[in-house]
Amino acid sequence: MPKTLFEKIWNDHLIAELDDGACLLHVDRVFLHERTGGIALSSMEAEQRQVRNPGHVFCTMDHIIDTFPGRGDATMAPGGRQFITSARQATRRAGITLFDVNDPRQGISHVISAELGVTLPGLTVVCPDSHTCTLGALGALAWGIGSSECEHALTTETLRLVKPKQMAVRLQGGLAAGVTAKDVILHLTGKYSASGGSGCAIEFCGEGTRRLPVEARMTLCNMAVEFSAFTGIIAPDDETLKYISGRPYAPEGGEWDKAVEYWRRLHTDAGAKYDKELHLDLAEIEPTVTWGTSPQHAIGISGMIPDPDKESNKGTRQAMQRAMDYMGLTAGTAINTIPIDAAFIGSCTNSRLSDLRDAARILKGNKITRRIKAICVPGSSRIKREAEQEGIDRIFTEAGFEWRESGCSMCFYAGGEGFAERERIISSTNRNFEGRQGQGARSHLASPATVAASALTGFITDARNMAIQQ
């Protein structure tokens, strides 16, 4: 029978179908970070359990380390140093590869897992972080797990899962100039709601998907979880192979040839069935920004804040009103007239070299005109070095941005550093929940280009207009 990409990888890793309807799957790679990795490993030690395959487990320092220059082991998170020390000691005892604070390979887990070739097409990859689905862009089956599941995967290289339903999101046509993958996923979530992909493994497919570069595909898959999907995945193609080739952990020589032969089979067969399909015409999408406290509160840059009173559903109406109250907004306000207090470029969603280049093209030769707190945090130490080699760091700093070390940083408040109450932030991150970037902080999600343009003007701004003015 014809099979989808997801079914092929699932079947290749299926160990057993259990009596309760769940399945037991083999796990190829486990990625840890300092916030949870040390705890999981220490718990296993206390119960005298060992990591089954240390060579397939990796850990990085990313979640709660400071991103200030010269940081060392510094952290603003309560008890942060203990997390760092615990992860360092536990990984050493377990024989696990650690990308420590000053390791040139250090970075955000989902960024470096792809960057180093740890994640490859057809692998199953888990990490105690919901945005592990980012790695589906390489044709891997990747998903976030909890702490108990993490210990189980470390000990047995297996996990119990109920097979999710399957959804195809077909992207048709091509993006207009100045529109990015971030705008696509925000548009999708705004159109079909944050529960639109609930319970599904989503395959992004179609001509429009194939036109996207690999790093743009990562942005799509990263935010599949904000669409309530189990994961997002994209079939590997020639662009994927070019991206992987030569990565430190990628196969070489004859092993590369064998891998490519397998990877070429990782696509959905003609006639394979999905449980649900959605279609998007990319040409209809404009730069998109969120206005509320959910990724589904998204509108085009030329739009206006919607009116809750026009919603027939009482629950939806109340949720919209709560979001507007928290964000300090009024229905009918044009999104591109809203002033901002801060700008943030970073996170596992949009902190790659291509993202920084997009922002730098807007910032070059320009300066922030209002008192805007603007911060850029590269997604990995390698990305930071490459950006500095291109002079991107100087473009950011000359425009008025802080240029930081790599890490999760102010994507979320758990790292100890956040924006002030009622500060309005334009952010390239993936979540705009209440308090996500600081207690009482108000976050608007957007692409790096939109963030850069908005930082320069002090208002939520269409970056395409900035490009015209240059």
| Class inferred from helices and paired strands | alpha/beta
- CATH homologous superfamily designation of the largest domain: Aconitase, domain 3
Biggest sheet, strands in spatial order? Answer: 5-4-3-6-7
| CATH topology (fold) name of the largest domain | Aconitase, domain 3
CATH architecture of the largest domain: 2-Layer Sandwich
Description:
The chain has 16 helices and 19 strands. It is 33% helix and 17% strand. By secondary structure, it is an alpha/beta fold. The strands form 5 sheets. Strands 5-4-3-6-7 form a 5-stranded parallel beta sheet, covered by helices on one side. It folds into 3 domains: 23-164 and 240-260, Aconitase, domain 3; 165-236 and 268-284, Aconitase, Domain 2 (3-Layer(aba) Sandwich); 288-469, Aconitase, domain 3 (2-Layer Sandwich). The protein has helices at 5-13, 37-46, 80-94, 109-115, 147-156, 181-192, 207-211, 214-222, 238-244, 253-263, 314-327, 353-363, 381-389, 392-399, 448-457, 463-469, and strands at 14-17, 23-26, 29-33, 57-60, 97-99, 124-127, 141-144, 158-161, 165-172, 200-205, 231-233, 276-281, 288-290, 298-300, 342-345, 373-376, 402-403, 424-427, 442-445. The longest helix has 15 residues, at 80-94. α2 (37-46) links the parallel β3 and β4 (57-60).
